[in-house]
Amino acid sequence: MAATKMIHVRVDDDIREEASSVLESLGLSVSDAVRVFLHRVVATQSFPLELKVPNETTRSAIAEAREIRKARRARFATPDELFDDLKGNR
After folding, report:
1. Is the dihedral of CA 26, 27, 30, 36 positive or negative?
2. What is the pLDDT of residues 29-61, one digit of tens each?
């Protein structure tokens, strides 16, 4: 068996909890996901995710989503408001 080393990573508590939940539904632990990620780096000799700098619209949407999450409030008061916005009826 190959020798192993411990990797310590600092991650925001909320992100770790959410990621753990998603990964658990896939049958993986956070450690499993990190191992898969590192194996992909080795196999492809590259970063296995496409990284792009978000444009202004995307940055604005990310900031809005973070504020909504932080305030624990919905952007729309009712489903009808959501659908009206999606249809452009606002």
Report:
1. negative
2. 999 999 999 999 999 999 999 888 889 999 999
Retrieve residue 49's tokens.
């995710």
d(CA 37, CA 46): 11
Neighbouring C-alpha atoms within 13 Å toward the C-beta of 2: 2
Convert the chain into a string of H (helix), E (strand) and C (coil): CCCCCCCCCCCCHHHHHHHHHHHHHCCCCHHHHHHHHHHHHHHHCCCCCCCCCCCHHHHHHHHHHHHHHHHCCCCCCCHHHHHHHHHCCC
Q: Within 13 A of 50's CA, how many CA atoms are on the CB side?
A: 2
- Cα separation of 22 and 18, whole Å? 6
pTM above 0.70, yes or no: no
